[in-house]
Amino acid sequence: MCAPLPHDPNRRPSSSGSVVLREPRADVLVGSRCAACDNVAFPQATGCQRCGARSMTTLPLSTSGRVWGHTVQRFAPKSPPYVVPESGFVPFAVGYVELPEGVKIEAVLDCATFEELAGAEVTLVATSPVPRFATATADAGAAPGATA
């Protein structure tokens, strides 16, 4: 079972226990595009990683993409900076999401089950403190550690 990290303001509990899809968010990830070779970078860069040109423009990135690769964090990361929630540690997924612009974003991944993540379509649900994407089946009403 994938579980949300604690204190996730983007999750709404479901009164029926069913899946609750998130409303679109106003915030977006901001990258940059090279005017010389069209390469896209995230986070925003002052110089191109591909050709070295210094002619970068600001680029708001797409809010949906496909999971390119992932892993499951099955033990609590070092603290600090990680703070173990009062309810205890719950495994969570992290991985890379490939956006239509061709850039891959490292992010926390919310899901109903870890098995559904390979190649899954995901949508941006938070940009801070780190990018966070979710599958359409991520159950916003699930309690950390609950099973599907």
Automatic annotation (TrEMBL):
Domain of life: Bacteria
Cleaved signal peptide residues: none
Domain ChsH2 rubredoxin-like zinc ribbon stretches: 28-56
Domain ChsH2 C-terminal OB-fold per the UniProt entry, residue ranges: 60-125
Membrane spanning residue stretches: none
InterPro entries named in the record: ChsH2_C, ChsH2_Znr, NA-bd_OB-fold, Thioester_dehydratase-like
Any single Pfam family the record assigns to this protein: OB_ChsH2_C
Protein name, entry field: Zn-ribbon domain-containing OB-fold protein
Gene source species: Nocardioides plantarum
Classification lineage: Bacteria, Bacillati, Actinomycetota, Actinomycetes, Propionibacteriales
